[in-house]
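To: structure desk
From: M.T.
Subject: fold request, one chain
Message: Could you run this one when you get a chance? Sequence is below, nothing fancy, just the single chain.
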Amino acid sequence: MKASLTLAAALTALAAPAEAQHLSPADVPAIHPTKESTLQELLGQNAGLRSDRMSIALFTLAPGSAYPASHNITSEEVFLIRSGTGTVWLNATPTKVAPGDLIRIPAGIDHKIEASRQGPLSFYAISAPPFRSDDTVPAR
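Reply: Done. Structure tokens follow.
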């Protein structure tokens, strides 16, 4: 009887809805993956808000700077432009971007993003499955 109660309690806990969580980017320390960029990991496997399904990072690029070209092996990525303007290259094809624009990047597609010289470019990088450093490789 005790084992079935323990199993019932465990199953009930698994079925319970997850708690809603809140995190402000102002509460997340920035790291500097390149000299002219900052990154704040907001959601992901090692972030302030934990998720095994997706990740969200807030990037900011200094005016005229670019994030190195790369591609993901398994993760699909979406860039959501928060502020500023710039250019995104998908397999060497450039596209101008501005606040509110979404860029979908399937796994295996080389991509690069650059801020315009007029000001910084801030964007959310959303990945599913979540970002892992071993899933990102330099562009071919």
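Reply (cont.): Confidence is low (pLDDT under 50) at residues 1-17. Let me know if you need anything else for the meeting.
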